[in-house]
Amino acid sequence: MMKRTVRAVVVTALAAAGVFGTTALAGPASAATRGVVEAQYNGVCGKGFEVVDFYDLDKLGTMYLTWNEKTGEACAVTVRSKPGARLYMHAKLYQMDHNEISDGDSGAFTTYAGPVTIPARGECIAWRGQIADQYLVQNYNCD
């Protein structure tokens, strides 16, 4: 089972700085926070997927990583805080040892990019989310 480390990180202008990676600013979320996260995610990846991690992309939205224990699949989606005029958005997920096993979705969207899914049982994965110029690449723990 994929390790669950639900936490939020505020991302600044990483795109402008050309920096990849993360800075953890908060510990595990409270039950109340987890409920808000689940509501914002809104089940986009489908039945059986649970949020295991998320990061805020400034005030523009949030990128989510979800896991389906039954199927052994990971799913990523990038969701805007407020739907509106089309903005460039991106969601990508790949196996770190086999990056040809990947799935991505990008374009000008009003609400979200993704969902994208890959088989991930027994694998280390990385995921990326972007809204406009705010983006983050996160290496995730191994299953």
Q: What do these coordinates show?
A:
The strands form two sheets. Strands 1-2-3-6 form a four-stranded antiparallel beta sheet, with helices on one face. By secondary structure, the protein is mainly beta. It has two helices and eight strands. Residues 3-33 have low confidence and may be disordered. Strand 7 (124-131) and strand 8 (134-142) form a beta hairpin. Helix content is 10%, strand content 46%. The radius of gyration is 14 Å and the shape is globular. It has helices at residues 14-17, 31-41; strands spanning 50-57, 61-68, 73-80, 87-95, 102-109, 112-119, 124-131, 134-142.
Brief descriptors of the model:
single chain, about 140 residues, mainly beta, four-stranded antiparallel β-sheet, 2 helices, globular, disordered N terminus
What is the overall pLDDT average? 78
Helix content: 10-25%
Spatial gap, N to C terminus: 6 Å
Secondary structure class reads mainly beta
Sum up the overall morphology in one term. Answer: globular
Largest sheet, in brief, is:
4 strands, antiparallel
Contiguous low-pLDDT stretches (5 residues minimum) are 3-33
In total, the number of strands is 8
- In DSSP terms, counting alpha (H) and pi (I) runs of 4 or more, how many helices? 2
**Radius of gyration, whole Å:** 14 Å
Order of strands across the main sheet: 1-2-3-6
Content of β-strand: over 45%
Instruction: List SSEs in N-to-C order.
Output: HHEEEEEEEE
